[in-house]
Specification:
The chain contains 4 helices and no strands. By secondary structure, the protein is an all-alpha fold.
Length: about 110
């Protein structure tokens, strides 16, 4: 769908972002299981857990700051530049083009 709500025709290339996302997600899950699985849990240090939690909180904060750009508000220059920079890191689910992968009901 385009910004005005109208739909565009899907091609076979529109499924590629979704397939890449699925492969990347599967790779991440395998990596988390391999590096943080039950066999390595007793030897796992608290610093690894701290770094993981810190990275998760940082990613959540980036998402929240990037969402500020969607508010219809006239930002002054220092804040505008910061908010525009953080929009590079926002996860936009429309990029996956789920409407081209599966048929969604319009009811």
């Amino acid at each position: 769908a385009i910004a005005d709500g109208s739909c565009i025709d899907c091609s076979s290339g529109n499924k590629v972002p979704f397939v890449i996302f699925c492969c990347f997600s599967a790779f991440c899950l395998v990596a988390v299981y391999y590096f943080g699985g039950p066999s390595s849990r007793p030897s796992q240090s608290l610093s690894i857990i701290l770094v993981s939690i810190t990275c998760s909180l940082f990613a959540a904060a980036l998402q929240q700051v990037a969402v500020l750009n969607s508010i219809s508000f006239v930002w002054v220059e220092p804040a505008y530049s910061i908010v525009r920079f953080f929009t590079l890191f926002i996860f936009d689910i429309d990029v996956l083009q789920l409407g081209c992968v599966v048929e969604l009901s319009h009811s």
